Amino acid sequence: MRCNDGAVDRKGRYWVGTMNDPKVQGPTSEGVVFRLDPDLTLHRMMEKVTIPNGMGWSGDDKKMFFIDSPTANIFVYDFDVDSGTISNRKVFFHYEDDEGGVPDGFAMDSKGNLWTAICGGGKVLKVSPKGKIVGEIEMPTRMISCPGFAGEELFVTSAEEEEPEKYPDSVKYGGSLFRVNVGITGMPLHRFKRTKG
């Protein structure tokens, strides 16, 4: 098992997803999302996940968003910021496209839109708080992995092309970091807050 993606909530708790190491075996639903609290206690928050990816919270801290990439879904949970508990999972957004690809990492902007990388699809989608696609950025390589905000610029990571013979045009920029001015800032990020003791 290995860690794949993580995020910190407003109370300083670190959430991280684990999955099977693809160098050892193909992904299965043995993954777990853990929550590490400031006092270093560890809690199992989600089970039976396959490739845990983007995690984040709404501006009012009432919702938590989570991607399990093979499902092509962005899930949303009711979130209790004081206790750090989640409940009532629903599909917030489902990606479906003839060209393939799945949601990977995401970043949230200051208006609550989710900017999600489509790994294998060569794009970043802007998804509204209502779960609708309201924008799209085409990228010069297929394996787009995760966006992140710095001011009004979106920095976007990518991975090496997995099928170079089938997609030779994707090879040149695979593994590159891209920068796009999107005219909006990101949601503030939080740091892990370890309890002193």
Descriptive key words:
single chain; 197 residues; mainly beta; 4-stranded antiparallel sheet; 1 helix; 2% helix; 50% strand; globular
Topology of this structure?
Blueprint: E1 2-8, E2 14-19, E3 31-36, E4 42-49, E5 52-57, E6 63-68, E7 73-80, E8 85-94, E9 102-108, E10 114-119, E11 123-127, E12 133-138, E13 144-150, E14 153-158, H1 168-171, E15 177-181
Antiparallel strand pairs: 1-2, 2-3, 3-4, 5-6, 6-7, 7-8, 9-10, 10-11, 11-12, 13-14, 14-15
Q: Roughly how many Å apart are the termini? A: 30 Å
- Beta-strand content: over 45%
| Mean pLDDT metric | 94
Low-confidence stretches: none
Which series of helices and strands comes N to C? EEEEEEEEEEEEEEHE
| Category from helices, strands and their pairing | mainly beta
According to DSSP, the number of beta strands is: 15
Provide the spatial order of strands within the biggest beta sheet: 1-2-3-4
Task: Give me the Rg, rounded.
Answer: 17 Å
Could you give a short account of the major beta sheet? 4 strands, antiparallel
Helix content: under 10%
Anisotropy-based shape: globular
What is the overall number of helices?
A: 1
